[in-house]
Amino acid sequence: MDIVREDLEGVSVLKPVGDLTNHSAPKFRKEQQAVLEAGFSNVVLNLSEIGLLSSIGIREIMSLYKDCAGQGGKLVLCELGDQVYDILETTGLMTVFTVCESQDDAVASF
To answer: Please, which residues bridge with residue 4 across strands?
Structure first.
């Protein structure tokens, strides 16, 4: 998995490309820690390029959500593919996260 990161004024955008599973979770965790250590507590997570999202991947997204909230910020998800949407809907997590259709809408939500 690759992770594209774009830091904007007050918001960091992360766009993982590939599967978010137990194999890629350490890389995702390292990138999210780097974002938080750089002082960003508001994060947009663009999920348009996620292939497979495992339970470990969901745990990592929840961890990022909690870390952002713990620093007084928030996590906004955007551009969910059908499979990711279905997983989050089935698990009841769609009611937990703020979700926007586009990355621009997500960035503007802050």
So the answer is: 15
Q: Which domains does the chain have, with CATH numbers?
A: 2-101 (3.30.750.24)
Q: What is the 3-state secondary structure (H, E, C) of the chain?
A: CEEEEEEECCEEEEEEEEEECCCCHHHHHHHHHHHHHCCCCCEEEECCCEEEECHHHHHHHHHHHHHHHHCCCCEEEECCCHHHHHHHHHCCHHHCCEEECCHHHHHHCC
CA distance 40 to 85: 25
pTM for the full predicted model: 0.95
pLDDT digits (tens, 9 = 90+) for 9-42: 899 999 999 999 999 999 999 999 999 999 999 9
Residue 89's identity, in one-letter code, is E
Distance of alpha carbon 60 from alpha carbon 63, whole angstroms: 5
